Structures are given as structure tokens and as C-alpha cells.
Amino acid sequence: MTIENLGSNYSNSPAVDNKSAGKPIAITSTHDVEGEGEGFRVSAGKNVTYLMMPKRFTPGEIERFQHLIQPIKESSGHAGLTDIEEYKDQMEGMANARDYKAIVRVNGKIVAMYQQEGGVTSTNTVGNIVRSIGANVDALVEQLRKKYGSSVSVENYSLNQGPTRTEAFEMFNGRSFANFVDSEVHSRQQDLAEHQRLIAKSQLKRNQFNQVAQSAVFRVNGNAVGSISDKGYVTINAPNLIQETDSSGLERESIKGFFHWGSMNNTDSLTVESMLRKVFGDAVDVESFAEGSMPTRGEVGEQSRRQFMNRYVEIEGRHSISRA
After folding, report:
1. Is residue 187 part of a domain?
2. Alpha carbon distance 210, 15 (integer Å)
3. Per residue in 256-292, is it b (16+ CB within 10 Å) or e — as a string?
4. Which member of 21, 81, 159, 262 has the greatest number of CB atoms within 10 A?
5. Do 318 and 212 share a domain, yes or no?
6. Is the CB of residue 217 less than 8 Å from the CB of residue 295?
7. Which long-range contacts (CB under 8 A, 24 or more apart) does 312-315 make?
């Protein structure tokens, strides 16, 4: 079974790598649907997709909701190759900058370094103090001398007279700045390669999922609300089904059976048609396809998305006229 287009796919199809495949969505809390103080109680193991879509959208909400019913697009948030190259250029470009104004030591070991523009690099031992007093060198030295006495020393530098970024990094960290940059670049390149591999794997599975042939498409008032493969896996096009329920003046509880994995998995076209007719009567139409002419799951889903948006505009237009 698959429930499409409400922000998450839910499937028992072998083409989907889904850890929760074949299991109802389990939520144990109360959520408001509409109206102050109103809501629905959700018990463990209950799939509440049919209750989650608002009956009416406030201005601007349709744009926020629309992205949920569009085909999923990859959005990485990961650094691309250009970003990695820019990072390397930036780090190498600042290697010789002399922008430190003070270095504080305890027993000869650096505990804090202050930059001219106010940046502070500190060890964990003085981190809390630095956070509480800010970029105040004298205040830090005063605090440390109360505890460490004369073992505290400070080196102050005039503008452009302090150590370079490379020198400061190596004194503070005890390792090569150049090696650090190379290591960071390599790590980011590996992360990018792994991310691209996962995207390719995900896209392959999605393509396989969307390419599964559908032996029948179920419609209510001409709008595709679901389809079934020849292996009995049902895909529910949730927005259309919910929209038809609301526009027909029916309670959403009447369609909860279509969001239960057990009844929508390993079933047949006649069973699904019978369930739909119990809710929508003669408004139900089933189109069956012979092998070789079957639409794919992706094609049915795209048709459903277009119908939902067109239907929404039509319904909103009628509401606008009635309000006027």
C-alpha cells in the first residue's frame, strides 16, 4: 500500500526502501485539526493521514501545502564541489593574515587567542569564562590570575604585528595548518561523494517505484483517488480522496479504511471499488488496463496532483463568489 502526496510516502512495495514499510504510522498525541480546542485523539498504530490535511486553506497556505504534493526534489544542504574549492581558497588565503592582538597563556600553554576584530579562540578550560565576559582580554587575565597567579601571562600585539593565522593555529593545536586544510577538504569531498551516491540510490528506487505498472485506476467524480498494481499493492492519492470527501459533505472517518495497510495490501480491484462505492456511490469509476497499456504509478500520481490543484482553484473560486 502507498499513501502519496502528503509529505511522506507509506508503502509495502518491494521497490521502496522504507524501514516502516508495512506498518501503520504510530502517533500517540492529540493534534488540533481546525477550530480552537478541537482535535483528534491518536492511538498507537493508527494512520491519521486522512485527518491531517486542512479542510480550508488560509491565504498563502496553498503555496505552503503545494510543495507537499509535488514530486519530491532532492535538496541536499550539502556543500557542492564549488563550495569545497571556495573553502580551500579561503583557508589558504587567510594563512598569512596577522590579525591576532593578544595571546593568553597559563604555565606557558595557550588558553586563549584574541583577534583584532573581536574573535576569540579558547580552550575548554577557560571557555565558560570567555563566554561570560566576552572579548575582554584584561578581564580574562584578571580572572585567571585569581586562580593561577603568576603562571598567567599575556602577549599583546600591535596591528599586523601578531602571529599569522598559520602560526597561531599550529601553536594552539600542535599540528600543521596545511595538513588540517587538506584533511578538511578531503573529508568534505568524501562527504559530497557519499551524499551524491545516496541521492543516486534514492533516485533509482524512486524511479523504480514510479515505474510500477498500475492495472486499474480508481476515480471519484473523474478525479484519480488511487490505483492498484497487478500484484495487489494499492496507491492512495490522498489529497484527491480527501478533497472529494470534504466536497461531498462526508465525514473523513468514512475513508479511514483506505489508510489502513492491512486492507490496502495484497488486495484486488473489485475489493477497492466496493469500498469506494460504499462511500461515494455512483460517483466512483474504475478504469482497468490490459498488459502493455497500463499507466505507471508516477503517471497516475502526476495526473492526481494536477487534478488536485485544478480542483482546489475551482472550489476556492466558488467560495470567493459566495463570500462576495
Report:
1. no
2. 9
3. bbbbebebbbebebeebbebbeebbeeebbbeeeeee
4. 21
5. yes
6. yes
7. 312/57, 312/62, 312/243, 315/243, 315/247
d(C-alpha 297, C-alpha 271), whole Å = 19
SS3 content of the chain, % helix, strand, coil (to 5): 50, 15, 35
If asked whether residues 47 and 106 sit together in one domain, one would say no
Task: Determine the structural domain holding residue 121 and report its residue range.
Answer: 98-163
Tell if the pTM clears 0.85, that is, is over it. Answer: no
| Cell representation of residue 247 | 466536497
The secondary structure of 150-168 as a DSSP string is: GGEEEEE--TT-S--HHHH
Q: Which helix (H) or strand (E) holds 188?
A: helix 177-210
Residue 130 CA to residue 281 CA, distance in Å, equals: 71
User: What pLDDT was estimated at residue 317?
Assistant: 59
Do 129 and 220 belong together in one domain? no
What is the count of structural domains for the chain? 2
What residues pair up with 106 in beta bridges, in sequence order?
109, 152
- The fraction of the chain above a pLDDT of 70, given in percent, is 72
Query: For residue range 195-204, what is the model confidence (pLDDT) as tens digits?
Result: 999 999 988 9
What is the spatial distance between Cα 255 and Cα 225, in angstroms, rounded to a whole number? 11
132 Cβ contact partners less than 8 Å away, ≥ 6 residues apart: none
Residue labelled with grid coordinates 592582538: 101
